[in-house]
């Protein structure tokens, strides 16, 4: 049998006529048709040359067909490898060379340039799928097949996907995810967040990333729930769907933007039971504003490409702003000393390590990096720095690569950012380290203020006063730079690497 396919079709087994997705044109896709179409995709992929364990690289827009392509790939015994739709052909080339897929599926409008790239990478077959999911050579291939393709047997330990990390701290790495890793996390989350077949998720995230792909889709399937499938994030469309939905999964910028709409209010969200946030830190202020305006406490959780989700604020119980909650039931979390690797006591700041069935089985073609970060006894060094409190809640302090060492002292950017964010008229900030001739690195604050007061002296003075009052000298920013906005990627992650590069020559 096929481990993941079984897991994901179990919940709907006795209710196949129930709705899986409502599409932008209001048509409905039942579970029966979802899996029938996935079986046709599987047959088409096998016809195109796919063998068990082969990678299928995919750079196409979000549509129901893309979801069926994911499921079809799993059913065919393939390894699903989605790529960010923003990647340029030369970026795609890196992934195709690195992953050597048997099949590459791209948008027909980009076929000319991407076919050349695929040829260079020796990809045997290139198929196309249009943005609306209705046209292209993949669709023609699907049309030649009937449903009923028998799933290729795959065990718990076989690979289901290679998912590349977002590339926030450097070059993207391919995380090898097994059937078990995906299935176990989907089940754990569906349970932790009380998903049932009565739930309807608003799906507005991209599906080339862990959040919109495995968290959103696998959790929905595992519970036999349904979803509104939106091609992209759209404030007013989402607000209109609240009355007929129960859950929203979003990145923090979703909530920031929704809060700006005049149409968001308590009446609108009466039917909603859960708002989830992740992929980047949610400001406590956003949490408070959301609670104020809607009466709901956003549930923040923490995960990454390599591990799926690790911790979550509780469904029942206190959702603590500024924390990512407690370890999920089958996940262990420990905080370790950066130098000795020893586990730190409660309230100690150190490296976040995680272990559990959700953890990946290594970086694709990077045995040395895998050995450095994934220990033989299963602990994964996440690259995030954090602290566990006495009630087991985890707070993320930052990434180890963003840690600033100034004059020999460690500066955790988050600690400085929290002080700055509290200053009147400051919207948000990013604290970075830039090369400095005396200190090694200098602490620099990049600050976004509200509207007109950008660059006002008042704010700068207020920031200096606040940091002087609350922080030791070595933590205080040597320079405050005002920008109109922070550079972010599609998942709303602040690109500190880009900021560091931009301000690299501040102290020549
Ligand atoms: P790369 O590993 O290539 O540098 P990335 O780490 O941004 O990129 P992802 O796997 O998409 O790639 O992101 C995982 C990271 O996102 C986590 O390690 C963590 O730093 C951050 N993250 C996820 N959820 C949260 C959260 N709730 N709060 C703070 N940070 C979060
Ligand atoms: Mg990472």
Topology:
Elements: H1 3-10, E1 19-22, E2 28-30, H2 31-47, E3 55-59, H3 64-75, E4 79-82, H4 89-99, E5 103-106, H5 111-120, E6 125-128, H6 137-143, E7 159-164, E8 174-178, H7 179-192, E9 200-203, H8 210-223, E10 226-229, H9 235-241, E11 247-250, H10 252-259, E12 274-277, H11 284-294, E13 299-304, E14 308-312, E15 326-327, E16 332-336, E17 350-355, H12 367-373, E18 380-388, E19 394-399, E20 404-406, E21 409-411, H13 413-421, E22 426-436, E23 440-449, H14 457-470, E24 479-482, H15 496-502
Parallel strand pairs: 1-10, 3-4, 3-5, 5-6, 9-10, 9-11, 11-12, 12-13, 23-24
Antiparallel strand pairs: 1-2, 7-8, 13-14, 14-15, 16-17, 17-18, 18-19, 20-21, 22-23
Helix pairs in contact: 1-7, 2-3, 2-6, 4-5, 7-8, 10-11
The structure holds adenosine-5'-triphosphate (ATP) and magnesium ion.
What would you say this structure looks like, in words?
The protein has 508 residues and is of the alpha/beta class. 31% of the residues lie in helices and 24% in strands. The chain has helices at 3-10, 31-47, 64-75, 89-99, 111-120, 137-143, 179-192, 210-223, 235-241, 252-259, 284-294, 367-373, 413-421, 457-470, 496-502, and strands spanning 19-22, 28-30, 55-59, 79-82, 103-106, 125-128, 159-164, 174-178, 200-203, 226-229, 247-250, 274-277, 299-304, 308-312, 326-327, 332-336, 350-355, 380-388, 394-399, 404-406, 409-411, 426-436, 440-449, 479-482. The strands form 6 sheets. Strands 2-1-10-9-11-12-13-14-15 form a 9-stranded mixed beta sheet. Strands 4-3-5-6 form a 4-stranded parallel beta sheet, with helices on both faces. Helix 1 packs parallel to helix 7 (179-192), helix 2 crosses helix 3 (64-75) and helix 2 packs across helix 6 (137-143). The longest helix is centred in the first third of the chain and has 17 residues, at 31-47. The N and C termini lie far apart (62 Å). The model has no long low-confidence stretch (mean pLDDT 96). Adenosine-5'-triphosphate (ATP) is lined by residues 165-170, 172, 278-281, 300, 302-305, 324, 382-384, 396, 399, 493. Magnesium ion binds at residues 165, 304, 383.
